[in-house]
Amino acid sequence: QVQLVESGGGSVQAGGSLGLSCTASGDTSSTYCMGWFRQAPGKERERVASISARDYTYYADSVKGRFTISKDNAKNILLLQMTSLKPEDTAMYYCAAGSRWCLLTNSQPSYWGQGTQVTVSS
What we know:
Blueprint: E1 2-7, E2 10-13, E3 18-26, E4 33-39, E5 46-52, E6 57-59, E7 67-72, E8 77-82, E9 91-98, E10 111-112, E11 116-121
Parallel strand pairs: 2-11
Antiparallel strand pairs: 1-3, 3-8, 4-5, 4-9, 5-6, 7-8, 9-10, 9-11
């Protein structure tokens, strides 16, 4: 079992920056892939960014150049640095982890955090 706890959400003005953190505990050998998803009211959940144990990264087109995903393997911490934030980035952000889902088109993570709200005002 893996437990994921997010932190760092909040409210910022457009153009601002925010950093999210996710701490993983439990059987971290089952977290080959880690990433961030987001869901806004009335919209489908989307994969924002992900990273594998060997540092294969993925970014949604909407956040490329603005968001950076990174991890600290020793501390089992996943980070998402968000810059040049837009109102469209407003959503609940979820940390996710699992075996190899980030390398597979139709796979989903096995473990999810409770989410942290990010609100960007214009």
